[in-house]
């Protein structure tokens, strides 16, 4: 595409099904590797343990969420992610299998994002599209 031409939306660097396949493959590879090395997901080691205890308590959940919206926590100000983790803790409880699947999907999403970023950057070079995919 020549920069002076209007963009018509038809020239894609990566097709949608490539993204879906990459996400599934990366998630399965991380899951297989984690099982191979014996990695166990223990949700009580970080904030998740506190979130599970609060999510399954009978108290007012907004009193727990309110400081997450207004203050930094352990040097982080990622309140949206902490609230999502709180909601997931209410859904998953202490079931290790659900937390493992969640972690593998997050790692698959991260890997897919990094792959797409590197593939898009390499597509700007004069490399063949297949070479860009292999290098990425």
From TrEMBL:
Is the keyword Membrane assigned to this protein?
A: yes
Q: Which controlled-vocabulary keywords does the entry list?
A: Membrane, Transmembrane, Transmembrane helix
- TM spans, by residue? 16-36, 100-117
Q: Please give the name of this protein.
A: Uncharacterized protein
Species source reads Xanthomonas phaseoli pv. syngonii LMG 9055
